[in-house]
Amino acid sequence: MFANMASTAAGVAVGSTVGHGLSNMLFGGGSSTQAAPVAEPQQQSFEERRMGGSCDIQAKDFTSCLNATSGDMTACNYYLETLKQCQAAAAQY
C-alpha cells in the first residue's frame, strides 16, 4: 500500500516537473543557453530495494536533470526511463 502511495506521489511530482519543463521549453522561461552538467543518479539503499522501495530517488534525479538543463527532455530521457521502470516495478508490489 505504501509503495502505491509513494509511486503515485512520485508520478504527480514528475508530471508537474514535466509539465513545467515542457511549458518552459515551448513558451520560454529560461534565458540560459549553456547546458549545466547532469547530476549522477543515486543508488537506492538496501532497505529501499528490500521493501520494494519508492521512486523518490529516481524522481529527484529526473527533476534535477530538468532543472540543470532548463527542461531539456532529450538530455533527461535516461532519468525519465529509469523513473518509469521504477514505477512499473513498484506497481507490482
Automatic annotation (TrEMBL):
Residues 32-51 are annotated as: Disordered. GO terms for cellular component: mitochondrion; nucleus. SUPFAM superfamilies: Cysteine alpha-hairpin motif. InterPro entries: CHCHD2/10-like, Cys_alpha_HP_mot_SF. One of its GO terms (biological process) is mitochondrion organization. This is CHCH domain-containing protein.
